[in-house]
Amino acid sequence: MHQLFRPSASSGRSARYVFVGGLHRSGTTLVADRLGAAPEIGAIRDAPVPEQEGVYLQGAIPHGAQNGIPGRFAFDPAQHLTEDSAFNTHEVARRIAAEWDGWFPADTALRIEKSPVNLLRSRLYQCLFPTAMFVFVVRHPLAVARATTKWTDQSEAELLAHWSHAHSLLLDDLPHLHNYAIVRYEDLTADPAGQLARLSALTGVAIPPPATEIGNRNDRYTGAAADPAGPIASRFGYGRDLRDVGPVAITMGRHYFRSVTDRLVSR
């Protein structure tokens, strides 16, 4: 894909980034919109790319139609980027910051970038941008699979396997991160104030509540699966039925500069 560039007077290297990631149809746009509603947080607007995703607005890490494919990208080893990646260089960091800079408001030092593949590249981004924060959005695997079927010819079982593999990689990555929060779609729709308070605690700015109620659309996908995503789903509190959402068995947040508080862990 040809690189899109908007000139800017600065390099963007002084900005602090909030990276939002999650599988397609998990609710990443919903969460990113809430974060971007805070006056202190700049968001990409009016860019001629799908869903305002920053991966399309930089050329340091190639990204096109064959990358980040819904229901498939987690199975591509090239999409899981860590500190061992060949992209872990000062030049890549400089180029990404410079190419993103013109797409953000000039007066915000805190900037949000939402792309599904961020789910798998947090360890690299933390090396490139050491003060970065990460928000991972997770939704019941059965809802994600059934919402994704219109974009793919894969079977439900294949999409569930993709969910499991993607979130297994995420669980492996979490111990390497300094600042992150996991937001379950179901928690956000049931208790938006509580979940936005967690994001406020992570970012240090007040995230405004939505103007209208956030509805849970999981109920449009009826029926249960034999085993949505096995033990990985269970660690996130998900059972076989879409209504089966219980306690999690993982750490749901971390903040490098202070001890994890109740606002950064699942209640």
What does this structure look like?
This protein is of the alpha/beta class and 267 residues long. The chain contains eight helices and six strands; from the N terminus they run βαβαβαβααβαααβ. The protein has a single domain, classed as Rossmann fold (3-Layer(aba) Sandwich), CATH 3.40.50. Helix content is 29%, strand content 10%. A six-stranded mixed beta sheet has the order 2-3-1-4-5-6. Helix 4 crosses helix 5. The longest helix has 18 residues. It starts with 15 loop residues before the first strand and ends in a 13-residue tail after the last strand.
Question: Could you give a short description of this structure?
Answer:
This protein is of the alpha/beta class and 267 residues long. Helices cover 29% and strands 10% of the residues.
Write the layout of secondary structure elements.
Layout: E1 16-21, H1 28-36, E2 41-43, H2 90-101, E3 110-114, H3 122-128, E4 133-138, H4 141-148, H5 156-173, E5 180-184, H6 185-190, H7 192-203, H8 230-235, E6 253-254
Parallel strand pairs: 1-3, 1-4, 2-3, 4-5
Antiparallel strand pairs: 5-6
Helix pairs in contact: 4-5
Q: Name the average pLDDT.
A: 90
Shape: globular
What is the CATH topology descriptor?
Answer: Rossmann fold
Strand-residue fraction? Answer: 5-15%
State the helix count. Answer: 8
